[in-house]
Amino acid sequence: MSISSAAVSNLGALDAAHHLHPFSDMKKLNAAGTRIIERGEGCHIFDTHGRRYLDGFAGLWCVNIGYGRKEIAEAAMRQMNELPYYNTFFGTTTPPTTLLAQKISSHAGPNINRVFFTGSGSEANDTWFRMARVYWAALGKPSKKMVIARRNGYHGSTVVGASMGGMKYMHEQGALPIEGIVHIGQPYWYGEGGDLAPADFGLKIARELEAKIDELGADNVAAFVAEPIQGAGGVIVPPETYWPEIARICKAKDILLVVDEVICGFGRTGRWFGHQHFGVEPDLAPIAKGLSSGYLPIGGVMVSDRVGDVLVNEAGDFNHGFTYSGHPVCAAAALENLRIIEEEKLVERVHDDVGPYLAEALRSLENHPMVGETQSVGLMGAVQMAEDKASRKRFEDRERVGIEVRNHCLENGLVLRATGDRMLFSPPLVISRSEIDEMIEITRKGLDHAWRVMQG
Ligand SMILES: *Cc1c(COP(=O)(O)O)cnc(C)c1O
């Protein structure tokens, strides 16, 4: 390691003095102290005290192939030595950029053959937002501008991303959403389904889209956007009736269907893309995270032929792009990542082996007094906690229960994320069955601990 041990011993103080963290109350964080992660290997990370953690969250939903893969470092180094940067603005490209666009297209459905690159998932959402409007304008329908999104959805942290997201605490800071973005309900049966059966609730929530389009006028609506499975919102797997109904409505009302694949893409759900699990076909699909397994920042928008043919043949200049759109080193790392996913058959592994195994392991927690239900698709799972299982009564202090479980797990060497009263699981796709067992065992102890605390 090139950072001196003197500097490392001082890092906590330096961090408190100089580093502002995302989504953090800095006063509280500085008082508690940051955890400094130094090294990763497989499904484990190590902090500067030499403590080892099983990473049940793959960094931030992204380290799909696990830590420490030298092939990626070598691919990035080769590209860096060859050509560290060149732009894609003025009639140029680089070999890995173009090859990556082709490779991504080869894993998307037959209707998706083009990719626009960005540096992140947020930028990907900003990109399609503009693309959708350009598409409709090119077709002579410039009034089709509004975007319908969902409460408790997550689409990033730029102004457009945060506006399309449905996080109230984000909207409150900065007078969001911006004009032209409105929200409908989420398919969260456990928390909001009331007395309806899940299937009926799924249809009811999907039909909020139809009502909203009718209210705004289909002539004013460009697109509907949703994550296949809400990630940051709590790994909320919608009832089976939901997605087919959404797809039907988008088609009937002639609005674009945008599926945010930033988490669900690249094997997380046991398919290459989450929409494939639900059997729907998006017109546009933002991607990032698992595209490079987080080794370098890169995102993009997958563009269907419906939109792509109009953009290419009729729209003229698309006045949009980023300095790092198609960055060659990031693209080389992503290409190597996709090669590993293909060669090691990680998508199949999630679908046939560790995905079903995780589902079973999560179900084994359902006999816990505090577990209301568990949900998972592939290696994306959630444990819903409840105060009273029989009546689906949730805790008054939802934040607290999640934090208690999360912190207890952390003390016992497992990183999980809590969203309110749901514990979220998103381990690397290379996780073993025995590591899943360990993850569930530590989670159970965390649940026991929180159950005692919540009883007072
Ligand atoms: C993380 C995420 C984003 C934002 O990606 P960034 O790379 O953080 O900008 C967008 N959409 C979804 C569904 C995400 O989970």
UniProtKB/TrEMBL annotation:
InterPro entries assigned: Aminotrans_3, Aminotrans_3_PPA_site, PyrdxlP-dep_Trfase, PyrdxlP-dep_Trfase_major, PyrdxlP-dep_Trfase_small
For this UniProt record, the keywords arranged alphabetically read as follows: Aminotransferase, Pyridoxal phosphate, Transferase
Please give the Pfam families that the UniProt record associates with this protein.
Aminotran_3
Q: Which Gene3D superfamilies match?
A: Aspartate Aminotransferase, domain 1, Type I PLP-dependent aspartate aminotransferase-like (Major domain)
So which cofactors does this thing need? Answer: pyridoxal 5'-phosphate
Q: Which PROSITE patterns match?
A: AA_TRANSFER_CLASS_3 (PS00600)
Q: Where does the source fall among the domains of life? A: Bacteria
One GO molecular function term of this record is: pyridoxal phosphate binding
Keyword Transferase set for record: yes
Family classification: Belongs to the class-III pyridoxal-phosphate-dependent aminotransferase family.
- This one is known as Putrescine aminotransferase
The source organism is Mycoplana dimorpha
User: What taxonomic classification does the UniProt entry list for its organism?
Assistant: Bacteria, Pseudomonadati, Pseudomonadota, Alphaproteobacteria, Hyphomicrobiales
